[in-house]
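Hi! If you just cloned this repository, the fastest way to understand the data is to look at a raw example. We've pasted two of them here, unedited. The first protein comes first, obviously.
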Amino acid sequence: MNRQLKGFAITLFVILSIGIFILMVSWFSGLLEVGPRRASNTYHIYFDNVSGLKIGDPVEVLGVIKGRVKKMRLEDNRVMVTVALSSEIKLTKGAKFAIRSQSYIGSDKYLFVNPGVGEPVSPNFIFNGENESLNLEVTFSKIDNLIDNLMALKLGTELIKTKDELLQAVQSLRESFKPFGTSVSELTFVLEGISVKFDSLTDLLTQESTIKELLSSKELYNELLTTNRQLQDLIKDIKTNPQKYIQLRLFK
């Protein structure tokens, strides 16, 4: 007898626990209202996309929760959202509906409502809404692309500046060695060739739209490799054969 009573108590406890859990979930999701039932009106809003919105999500009128999302269903490649809104809220034909994120990094959504001004509408009126949370994601993506493009533009500007400085150095080198009767044709030829490489790199930076594409360019990689190799060869040759670049004339 005691064993049967104990089994009945355990079964009753499990059933009550499950019931309480279901009630709590329903209450927090807005499917169950606690207290006196408030009068509400039903409205329908069509969206092109309701990504993130769920049944039971709050409906806020100018920042104050005044209703809940009750239903969502597909109709002709659009989504019709049905909301229950407090009867004290009077909507007009100019009312605006927008799905928004509760935070920039969270996934929770709510339906924002601006009652608008103009001619009042009756319950079951149909509105068109907008998913502003998706627009925010698109905006962030555009900002990322803009930053990438600005970085590429800055690199291009720096490269043009470096190329101009290199050309000035070549001209200065010519002027410096003139009094000594020095032959610097080979040195000048190599340095001018390097400046041409910088020109082609600048063109690449101007044409590419993002840093990712720029860094993945095989043409840019080969140009940098060739330029570096020429500089290394030039330095090595100057150290090994300085007479090729500096030839003092003692007699005319």
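Ok, and the second one:
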Amino acid sequence: MAKGKKKPIKKDESESEDDDLEFDKLSKKDMYKIMMLMKKIEEQELQLEKQEEFLISKMEELEGLSENHEKLNNAHISLTNDYDKLKKDYACATNSSLCVASLQQETCNLKAQLGVLTSKHYLAAKNDPIINEVIAACKARKVYDVMSIEKDWNNEIIAQFFATLYVEEHDDI
């Protein structure tokens, strides 16, 4: 290299050297303050890391508690439904008026359905020529017992429509 010419210094190196020069110019008191500040920063960084870890652990704990709460809530709903069901069953078992009224209403509905089905069955049987023949034979022989009908005629149709004869309560026989 030629005399008087300086080697070109990279910018990063020059800044680092400038910082070192400024750092060298500081008094011992200032150096002590800087060292204390750096130490405090490191302590705060460590404390921040601990707080982050603590926060993460508490968030995980909260998620677990939320799951447990959801399970308990579902169990509560299930138990409430079971309680209501048992309360109704208990009311029916002790013949409470609510249950008796409900059973009476259901009985009336079933009787009405039976009446409708019986009348449909009777009308179908009345128009059936085989049934009319059996009824005529029963009237002629004055047969009122199903066992004697089954003995005289071994026919399933007779047994099926025997109920029709009794629904009429022996009006036509």
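That's it. A detail worth noticing about the second one: The chain is about 85% helix and 0% strand.
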